[in-house]
Amino acid sequence: MSQLFMFEKPLGMRDTLPELYEAKSQVRNAIGNEMKQWGYQFMETPALEYYETVGTASAILDQQLFKLLDSQGHTLVLRPDMTAPIARVAASKLLKEDLPLRLAYSASVFRAQQREGGRPAEFEQIGVEMIADETVSADGEVIALMVSALKQAKLENFQISVGHIGFVQELFLQILGTEERAQSLTKFLYEKNFVGYREHVKGLNLSSIDKQRLLDFLKLKGGEEVLDFAQSLLENGKGREALLQLQQLWEIVVDYGEQEKLKFDLTLVSHMSYYTGILFEVYADQVGFPIGNGGRYNLLVEKFGKTTGATGFALRVDRLLEALGELKKAEPAQCILFSDERRKEAFQLARDKRGTGVKVVLQDINGVRNIDQFTEQYGEVTFLIGKAGRGNES
Q1: Residue 372 and residue 342: Cα distance in Å, rounded?
Q2: Which residues form the Aminoacyl-transfer RNA synthetases class-II family profile domain (predicted)?
Q3: Cα 295 from Cα 278, distance rounded (Å)
Q4: What pLDDT score does 343 carry?
Q5: How far is Cα 80 from Cα 313, in angstroms, rounded to an integer?
């Protein structure tokens, strides 16, 4: 193993420099304030969790977990997502009454990269969880909130794709007969490998009618009209409950007035295996990956001892920033450059300016080597140099 340089970072980890940090803060504050306006309360969970609890419940692949041992020999993981930790907290401490919980978070999550390829192993998510509400209204609310939050962040061009994992599972089981065969075909959907999907279907030992049903399944993308087409692919009425939920969701989103941002994609599946019903992804111009995703996960909270429904979403802050492009830069701080004789005067002036909301940097003249280069950083510079009444001021 080669010796590390002092400035090297672990694979997939990134530094956040001041300009990017400020951009993240702008987005985080805009989205967070909107979540609060909708009645969601922010909370935090530990960065470290037990592997046997949150690690196994998270649905993140085992090889993507950062693991370590504590002093008692327990295996710990850096949290790979926020949904599982919040489900743990809700089940153990918050679900005392049968009332829906509206929780929000903004935190970093950690997923090891086998082949890094420029992808981060640590990234920030901001999102919400609505726990103890099994209605489609709850799914509609989190989707409408996500739309509203993205608009508050000044993102204009984005689209939400909505599917239902229950529909996919039922259709595939009807046609293929076994879970194993259904999972083999579903894998192509995870990878969005539709060419491979078609080739796999052509090679299956099925009737021409069933093969055509599986190929027609790929056409289930668009507006409300795709739900009728989806009905025609089902047999014996099974799977129609999923389509009724999607129809109800559409009507709810229409009532919110956000239907122009929504389209159905019934081929949508997720690598997060805890999703049990409606699920969705949000895409934006100029970004090749989803900038956020979410859905219903009714069985996850059950792993922590409570039986209840839950839904939510998470936005990737780094991908959202990529979609937004160049953000408005923060106003530069003013600077007061002072000498020893006028230090007290400088401190008082800075205190007065900060009291009016102005950002102020105080700088001892003895710490500056190049005045011209230094003053270029600031919008305004006040010189308090020499004895009072004799210094240059501007």
Answers
A1: 21
A2: 12-332
A3: 5
A4: 94
A5: 15
Annotated binding site: 81-83, 111, 125, 129, 274-275
Assign residue 381 a region (left: φ > 0; alpha: ψ between -120 and 50; beta: otherwise).
beta
Query: What tens digit of pLDDT does each residue of 36-85 get?
Result: 999 999 999 999 998 888 888 887 888 888 888 989 999 999 999 999 99
Copy the structure tokens of residue 270. Answer: 């997720």
Binding-site positions for L-histidine? 81-83, 111, 125, 129, 274-275
**Rounded distance between C-alpha atoms, residue 59 and residue 299, angstroms:** 12
Higher pLDDT, 389 or 123: 123
Under DSSP, the state recorded for 135 is S
Hey, which residues does 160 pair with through a beta bridge?
262, 282
Report the candidate in 218, 291, 280 with the shortest Cα–Cα distance to residue 245: 280
Please give the distance of CA 37 from its chain centroid, rounded to a whole number: 19
DSSP state of 104: E
Q: What is the pLDDT of residues 316-355, one digit of tens each?
A: 999 999 999 877 777 788 999 999 999 999 999 999 999 9
CA distance 258 to 47: 35
Per DSSP bridges, beta strands 334-338 and 380-384 are parallel
Structure tokens at 284: 């934006």
Tell me, rounded to whole angstroms, the distance of Cα 352 from its chain centroid. 40
Q: Where are the domains of the chain?
A: 1-157+285-330, 167-257, 334-384
The whole-angstrom separation of Cα 22 and Cα 70 is 35
The tens digit of pLDDT for each residue in 183-222 reads 999 999 988 999 999 999 999 999 999 999 999 999 999 9
Tell me the CATH number for domain 334-384. 3.40.50.12590
Q: So what's the pLDDT on residue 63?
A: 85
Q: Fold for 1-157+285-330, please state it.
A: BirA Bifunctional Protein; domain 2 (3.30.930)
- pTM for the predicted model, two decimal places: 0.88
